[in-house]
Amino acid sequence: MCACNCDCNHDHDYDHNSVSSTVTSNPLIPMRAKVINIVQETVDTKTFYISTLDGEKPFDPQPGQLGMLSLPDIGEAMFSVTNKGEKHIEMAIKAVGELTNALHEIEVGQEVGIRGPYGNGFPLDYCRGKDLLFIGGGIGLAPVRSLIMHCIRNREDYGKLTVVYGARSKGDLCFKEDLFENWPKVPNMELFITIDKEEEGWDGHVGFVPSYVEELAFKPQVTVLCGPPVMIKFTLPVLQKMGFAEKDIITTLEMRMKCGVGKCGRCNIGSKYVCLDGPVFTMEELKDLPPEY
Amino acid sequence: MSVNEVTWQPKILVFACNWCTYAGADLTGLSRLQYPATVRILRVPCSGRINPQFVLKAFQKGVDAVLVAGCHPGDCHYTTGNYFTRRRFLIMRRLMEYVGLEPERLQARWISAAEAPKFQQVITEISEQIRALGPNRKLRDEEWKI
Amino acid sequence: MKRVGVFVCHCGTNIGAVVDCPQVAEKAMDFPGVVYSVDYKYMCSEPGQEMIKKAVQEHRLDRVVVASCSPRMHERTFQRCVEGAGLNSYFVEMANIREHCSWVHAGEPEKATEKAMDLVKMAVAKVVKNKPLQKATIPVTDRALVIGGGIAGIQAALDIANAGHVVDIVEKEPSIGGKMAQIDKTFPTLDCSACILTPKMVEAASHPNINLLTYSEVEKVEGFVGNFDVTIKKKARSVNMDVCTGCGLCMEKCPKKVDSEFELKMSKRRAIYTPFPQAIPNKPVIDRENCTYFNTGKCGICSKVCPAGAVDYTQEDEYLTRRYGAIVVAIGFELFDYSVIGEYGYGKYPDVITGLHFERLVNASGPTLGKIKRPSDHKEPKNVVFIKCVGSRDPAKGKSYCSKACCMYTAKHATLVREKIKDSNIYIFYMDVRTPGKGYDEFYNRTREQYGANYIRGRVSKIYQQGERLIVRGEDTLLGRPVEIEADLVVLATAMVAQPGAGQLAQKLGIGYDKDHFYTEAHPKLAPVETHTQGVYLAGACQGPKDIPESVAQASAAAAKVCGLLSKREMLTEPIVSEVNESICAGCGMCVAICPYKAIELKTISERIQGQTVERQVASVNGGLCQGCGACTVACRSAALNLKHFTDQQILAEVNALCL
Amino acid sequence: MLVAQKAKLREILNALSEEYQVAVPVQREGTSAFELYRDGIEVMFNGNTSISPKGMFFPQTEKMYGFKTVKNTTEFVSLPVEQGKRLLFGVRSCDMKSLDCLDQVFLTKGYIDEFYKQKRERTVIVALGCNEPGETCFCASLGLDPQKAAGADVHAYDLGEVIGFEAVTEAGQKVLDLLKNHLREQQFALPPVGEFYLKPEVAGVPEKLKGMFESPLWEEIARKCLNCGACTYVCPTCHCFDISQDVRGEKGIKYRCWDSCMFGEYTQMAGGHNPRPTKKERVRNRFMHKLNYFPERYNMLLCTGCGRCLDVCPVKMDITSIIQQIKEAK
Amino acid sequence: MEDLTLVLRRTAKEILEKGEAQMVIGWEKGAFWYSSTSAFISKPEDTERLIWDEYCVNNLAKYLLDYRHKEGKVAVFVKGCDSRALNVLLQDKQLKREKILIIGLACPGMKDEVEARKLGRGSSIPLYKKCRECRYPNALNYDFFIGEDKVIKEIPAQDDFSEVQALESLSPDEKYNKFVANYERCLRCYACRNICPACNCRECIFDRTASGWSSKANNVSENMFFALTRALHVAGRCVGCGECERACPVNIPIMLLNKKIIQDINALFGEYEAGTDVTAKLPLGGFEFTDPEEFM
After folding, report:
1. Residue in chain E nearest C587 by alpha carbon
2. Any idea what the CATH number is for the domain that residue B45 is in?
3. Among C649, D247, E208, C4, which Cα is nearest to A75's?
4. Residue C89 within a domain
């Protein structure tokens, strides 16, 4: 019984979503890479642009896929690839633990270890041709942005794009350049940005994401939802009340991951490994998994 | 760091309390009293700050001997620090000897800020003892090379 | 990663002569985190510090390691320097490659260089883990305590009181005045000691800001700078000070005679007594050991005759605890007990006396009312022999140091003998004559030339009694022949030693003392009146032998330090205190019992664990009380306590760096 | 069936040592485990080793790769890997089945664990049948044949004075060819297998567990557990591991080592959140993984009935009685 | 022993029925005749599961830590060693005495399970070594006691340090080789720590690799660091219940380290028996000015 979530119980090896082969023969050994640019998104979040030593993309990740970034003498951690360019991939990282704080102290030119891509990524063929609603909270926008950028690159394959994004304060809004310069220029794409509390110098919407979504009363469509657990907990019922089908609500989960290839047994939710069968799950799938994440 | 007999130099770590032994070591310097260069002094506010686990870590990382040194009981700048050191290291020394570490490799001495000659004499004495004993291989991390 | 700058100092030739500084600087570039390293002649100099500041700007350094002298010397200097460059002052670590390296491994330059590299590697490994710290503020109690009522204590108290602060003087004798009260004249001006001392004593007694706690001792000292809680034991005087008028009737009528300590047993005093006539407070004290009433219950005359009914046999010792912002220790000195020296008669010959005995003999209010008489037969002596350096500069039987003041007061004694006994012969055995003060050498020459004192360069090997006279056998090293003098009176210039109780008091205060129990100053040149314990200062002979001008100078210096401290309502404290990680702390309380400053207590916090609010106890450190000794961090098994600036991680980093 | 006198086992093992690095079960002071065979080592014939042969393929601490971090450069260095053919003699059928479980984990689902694969491919396994099950054994209840370890290269049978050998795979045949002058052809009937003391019925348990995540049973079961790692470290099928590094200055080695879902730090996330904070969640996860999650993913139970967890558990947790309680739970 | 089981059940039942405690922690029969395991009874009718036989070796005191934040009281049966363990937990302020109902027992000494399994049901089975040497078979600190308080086991005069002294007499290398041989096989499963009543930290440094003290790597050097550190941490609080040795899957003689420290504490700082007096000052929690002086 294959673990892909299209529950067609044919028995084949795992080739769902054409996982591109890892760059090194041994999935646990990283390859050398270099940080070629660092963008300070917020006071505690930076986006790192990473490419190989000879200036190529380490791997070509699908939207929503993850990469294992490492400073070998400190540690390794899994981060979503928030965007990819011709010659690089981008990872947005918030300083929370030992490794992330160390990452926030490195400078452009620092060599790192990278391996991947991991995880199933967003179901692109399921979303093709449909209107898409993206709901993000704080750093939660990072994984969602990979799909948004993909849709912008293949704009004609996708319907109307709507982005609802909230953060604690103006300073906490990630990817400001996209939010205020690039994305408004994209045809048939609507942006709704909100911050939690009133702040001078901010004339946009003020309020929490769940109430804002309720206020905007969207028609049911495929939705990608990602943010802090409290935001998801309150946004879900709003979407369900608005008639969104559970299989149309997609989210990515964040768990402690060590191997990244579904072996070390750490990131399991029930029988599913977030690093391999996830991190992207529909609400329907999550419903019949044990609530342990 | 691999150990070969010929080029081996004893590596002795001294945990010195800032108010007495470290000052005594300074005075030893001021008075130009020479002693072997096998010793590295690590400053701690009080001998009471020396956690026996630091000593275990030092042996694990490859030190040949450890000296725990502080003020004479009663002279402690923090009044009672060295009384705890005394209890801890009376037990610790016996425990380490019990598991097979040569007693000379873990010593504790009270050396006040004025006892420069004593500092010189203690360091010289330990250095000779360890030179005689040879490199320490006990409790050590396994060595690897890449 | 952290960007560390390493600055290796030559310290002129002190380091550079032995340690190959350029090589150390070059090797430092290989250590993890180091992005800039340089060596320079004098890092602590102005240009040296400028170099650090410039390097921090230019190379965007966020950590600095200075390899130079002992941090006990210049850590403060370099902390201020990096602060000037915009870094947190605790982002600097020092590698001691002078006192611990170049000065002690002069014969092995390559090993010294290798050790210097190791020490720099340890410092770099530690500094990478340093965290930014801010100084905290604690309240300062506007009250000072002076321990010891001699000239130094009185002078310090006066200066502090005149600056507007309240001062308490604690003196263990019934009266203030100290040793100077026993002295007759003072060199080099020969003005009478009482004339310059008693006005100061009166001024101190009457000063509104000064409280005298005589016949009292310090029992216990707790707390720390700005907040010393001192428990003082006021011994029972058996006389009610408020009622007594000091008329002295009781002292006349008291039948019991006892040797007077003030007069060095050369005359008697009564069981109820004041040490000397000009005593302040001039109110008597009952010496309970010798008073008949206290021994047998009979007598009680003094209470009968006392017009004011001030005598109160039921008085008890009284303990009072007060909070002080600063403490000045001025407990003075004692004279060396020469009875250990057999050659000078083990103290058995009555006519072999000390300088202080001589002071009493020539003193107008002394036992002989100023006439020099031989204690044995009260005759006026003809031949007077003075012997200097008795117990001083004599490591075998006495002390290794020079007691500084004996040369001058022996010369003074010689002039007084000449003045009082015109036709006397004065001999002075000396090793050297040290006259370092203003007008000192002129005074000494006058003694030799005008007053005809015979200075004999040589030591006295033996004194023995022969009939009524004493034979003093010595040698004259300048003439190279033995000398023998028949003396009527021999005065020994004995060494100054520390007060017998000096050691215990130091342990109560937590201050250091040397092998001779003189108190250790924070730094011999840069901080002579401070101790390593912040807020405790030194003045006078308790810090080392010295004469009156120096003691007074030190007293004023200490007072200036105290006024600097008390002038502010609060002061900055070292942020090197321990901190608790409440999520790890299990509230076992091991640390509470161990903290010498009672800085840790268990407090109750409430937190939500799995949807349930739970009350539990955790340790909490009072940053003001904690002095950063770190004993609690070792007692804490789960390492919930860590000492800032000396964290487990920093020390482990140093240990690891040492062994790579 | 080819047979040989048990007394001649020593020669057989010496002969095999020419070709292979041979490992055999050995009784040591306080424990028993698989060790490199040297002439004269006494092979343990009764019962199973207390430390499973899992360590031969998935060592407790395994160096993966070296690295050098000089200034801001990062370099990865591959480490020498032990080569040479190996032969495990005396593996019981429960441990053989556990290797089957580990194969599923390490060699399938799109990623191959090279470290494990290399060790697995160079090892030939001579399984030894059990005639007399231990008190805590229950492999039969999980559908295993104690005398014939499915998946082994050679089946060896303990026939009292004599040992019988039957090659199953080609590699096994090569082994027996190597020993042909030690063996002789003889017909032997396998002795009957002794009576099992523990007989848990696992049928239907995985399916029933699917709905039992919220069952109060877990609270009761978890009460006496100490959350130590003993059961997970002796269990031949437990395969969770942690990745960490041993750093010495600018050089370091990245290694992986056994980890246990029983430890608190196992799922502790950087931000402070821990999906399995107390021992109830951890105990539930352990048994759900063995009896539900793993079957759902790999179509086989993650328990082979070796009974080691019953032997070592300080508070005598017993998976067979837990299976019983699951069956009886409402 | 048989009738005591009935007394035990009746007592537990009364406690639950009268609501004096929310739960009773005792023992019940395990899967085999030679093993009894812990039981957590909250319903009066379940008290039938409780038993008291020669295999109730588990030290139940440490389980109370799981219920210290729950409302109501918990009753627990304690043997001599268990009650000393409970005293250590009280001394370490990890439990509140008023939230615990202690039912003391006179312990005849527990039979060695490993031997029982080897020798089989019929034969006479020796006691655990720790029970043979035990000097406090009866509960010391309890709310009420089951069975007569008479000693039903002869008690050795003082602790037996013969093994420690035997080890002390060896040469440094011999001692070290024995130490390595023991700790080479340590799995770092932490069963010894998790069962030890003196190891009651909220978060152990060995569970926090980020603290830098230890790594998860299982090599003899890290194992020795763990063993020595734990011995030092429980110094002065180890009650000698021997549960660590019983829990160790690879049978390492852990008590050899703890006994050595107990012997040294007695010799250096005066006779001290951990867990016998809740008010006593912990030997390594304080000092005396008159402590032996070896470092002058």
Report:
1. E93
2. 3.40.50
3. D247
4. yes
CB C219 within 8 A of CB C231: yes
Q: C390 and C476: one domain?
A: yes
pLDDT band, very low/low/confident/very high, at B3 (cuts 50, 70, 90)? low
Contact list in E for residue D314 (CB cut-off 8 A) is 58, 191, 194-195, 243, 246-247
- Our answer on whether A and D touch (3+ beta-carbon pairs < 8 Å) is yes
Whether C265 maps to a domain, the answer reads yes
Task: Look up the domain containing D224 and give its range.
Answer: 205-238+268-328
| Chain D nearest CA to B146, separation (Å) | 6
Touching status, chains D and B (3+ beta-carbon pairs under 8 Å): yes
Which of residues D152, D185, D218 is at a domain's end?
D185
Residues C510 and C414 in one domain: no
Say how many domains are in chain D: 2
Q: Looking at the domain assignment, is residue D245 inside a domain?
A: no
Q: Is there a contact between E31 and D229 if contact means CB atoms under 8 Å apart?
A: no
**Residue partners of A280: CB distance under 8 A and separation at least 6:** A64, A119, A120, A121, A122, A123, A250, A251, A252
Query: Mean pLDDT across the stretch A236-254?
Result: 91
Contact D164, D3 (CB under 8 A): yes
Kindly give, in sequence order, each residue whose CB lies less than 8 Å from that of residue D202, ignoring residues fewer than 6 positions away. D141, D142, D291, D301, D323
Q: Could you read off the pLDDT of C107-163 as tens digits, one per residue?
A: 999 999 999 999 999 999 999 999 999 988 889 999 999 999 999 999 999 999 999
Q: Do A107 and D72 touch (CB under 8 A)?
A: yes
The residue length of chain C stands at 660
Interatomic CA distance for residues E295 and C631, integer angstroms: 19
The total of structural domains in chain B comes to 1
The angle formed by the CA atoms of residues A100, A106 and A107, to the nearest 5 degrees, is 140
pLDDT(E263) > 60: yes
Subunits adjacent to chain D (3 or more Cβ pairs under 8 Å): A, B, C, E
- Spatial separation of the C-alpha atoms in residues C508 and C504, rounded to whole Å: 6
Domain span holding position B105:
12-133
B to D CB pairs, distance under 8 Å? 9
With a CB cutoff of 8 Å and minimum separation 6, the contacts of E3 are none
The whole-angstrom distance between E284's CA and the closest CA on chain B is: 7
- Kindly tell me if the per-residue pLDDT of A18 is higher than 70: no
* CA neighbor of C533 nearest in space, from C554, C509, C549, C516: C509
pLDDT range class, residue E149, cuts 50, 70, 90: low
> In this structure, are C309 and C325 located in the same domain?
no
Nearest CA in chain D to B1: D248
Contact (CB, 8 A) for A197 and A204:
no
Q: Are residues C397 and C466 in the same domain?
A: yes
Interface test with D, best of A45, A99, A120, A256 (most D CBs within 10 A): A256
Residues of D with CB under 8 A from a CB of C: 69, 72, 248-250, 277-278
Secondary structure (3-state) at A189: strand
* Residues A197, A192: Cα–Cα separation, whole Å: 16
C-alpha Rg value of chain D to the nearest Å: 22
B residues 83..142 contacting D (CB < 8 A): 141
Q: Is the pLDDT of residue C657 over 60?
A: yes
Do D24 and D155 lie in one domain? The reply is: yes
Angle at which helix C406-420 crosses helix C355-362, to 10 degrees, equals: 40
Written as six digits, the tokens of E148 are 């007569």
**Percentage of residues in chain D having pLDDT higher than 90:** 77
C283 closest CA partner among C359, C212, C218: C212
C589 chain-E contacts, CB cut-off 8 A: 92-93
E232: closest CA of chain C, how far (Å): 9
Q: Is it the case that residue E161 has pLDDT exceeding 50? A: yes
Instruction: Determine the average pLDDT of the residues in B64-84.
Output: 90
Tokens found for residue D113: 């664990």
Is the pLDDT at A21 greater than 70? The verdict is no
